[in-house]
Amino acid sequence: MAIEAWYMEENDEDQRLPHHRNPKELVSLSKLAEVGVLYWHLNPKDYENDEELKKIRKSRGYNYMDLLDLCPEKMPNYEEKLKNFYTEHIHADEEIRYCLEGSGYFDVRDKDDRWIRIWIKEGDMIVLPAGIYHRFTLDTCNYVKLMRLFVGEPVWTAYNRPQEDHPARKEYIKSLTEKVDMAVEAH
């Protein structure tokens, strides 16, 4: 099953709601690939032995992994953390997230600075390119268990918008304007 994504209606309602436009404007995997978002659907029930995950990690150099349970009962300073995750930002490195349980939303900006909401659910793995403006929130289920993957030592530094002069942002914009061919692997 492919991931679900759509253009968001921007308003002040609960960030955990879907925020579909009326009418709905769905976004395809190829459209996500145009902004550099990669996607795989894997088997989260056996992630320790998943050969496809091992292959992805090896080919992309993801040598560090940890797990994050995000819910009010398991995360200290839950409300503050969720607020920080939902602040629009970039990273100097890719953000790789694999949903093992639960669900949540990653919002990314398209080439025209419009929000695309990506609903990740159990089995969805996405890679957000370095320099893309994005944010994260839970949906109304209020729970997600994520695998976080990194190249080398983990770095969680977020650079809040605006960051137009950040080297990662400049490189990302350059990749969009040069129309670098980014592959998408949909299952």
Automatic annotation (TrEMBL):
Pathway where this protein functions: Amino-acid biosynthesis; L-methionine biosynthesis via salvage pathway; L-methionine from S-methyl-5-thio-alpha-D-ribose 1-phosphate: step 5/6
InterPro entries of this UniProt entry? ARD (IPR004313), ARD_euk (IPR027496), RmlC-like_jellyroll (IPR014710), RmlC_Cupin_sf (IPR011051)
| Catalysis: reaction(s) | 1,2-dihydroxy-5-(methylsulfanyl)pent-1-en-3-one + O2 = 4-methylsulfanyl-2-oxobutanoate + formate + 2 H(+); 1,2-dihydroxy-5-(methylsulfanyl)pent-1-en-3-one + O2 = 3-(methylsulfanyl)propanoate + CO + formate + 2 H(+)
Q: How does it sit in the membrane?
A: Peripheral membrane protein
Q: Which UniProt keywords apply?
A: Amino-acid biosynthesis, Cytoplasm, Dioxygenase, Iron, Metal-binding, Methionine biosynthesis, Nickel, Nucleus, Oxidoreductase
Residues that bind Ni(2+)? 89, 91, 95, 134
Q: What is its main location?
A: membrane
Principal EC category: oxidoreductase
* GO MF term list: acireductone dioxygenase (Ni2+-requiring) activity; acireductone dioxygenase [iron(II)-requiring] activity; iron ion binding; nickel cation binding
Q: Name one GO cellular component term.
A: cytoplasm
Cofactor annotation comment: Binds either 1 Fe or Ni cation per monomer. Iron-binding promotes an acireductone dioxygenase reaction producing 2-keto-4-methylthiobutyrate, while nickel-binding promotes an acireductone dioxygenase reaction producing 3-(methylsulfanyl)propanoate.
Location(s) in or outside the cell:
Cell membrane; Cytoplasm; Nucleus
Q: Which GO terms describe its biological process?
A: L-methionine salvage from methylthioadenosine
Residues reported in the UniProt entry to bind Fe(2+): 89, 91, 95, 134
Supply the EC number(s).
1.13.11.54, 1.13.11.53
Cofactor(s) required, per the database record = Fe(2+); Ni(2+)
Role according to the record: Catalyzes 2 different reactions between oxygen and the acireductone 1,2-dihydroxy-3-keto-5-methylthiopentene (DHK-MTPene) depending upon the metal bound in the active site. Fe-containing acireductone dioxygenase (Fe-ARD) produces formate and 2-keto-4-methylthiobutyrate (KMTB), the alpha-ketoacid precursor of methionine in the methionine recycle pathway. Ni-containing acireductone dioxygenase (Ni-ARD) produces methylthiopropionate, carbon monoxide and formate, and does not lie on the methionine recycle pathway.
Per the similarity annotation, which family is this?
Belongs to the acireductone dioxygenase (ARD) family.
Its protein name is Acireductone dioxygenase
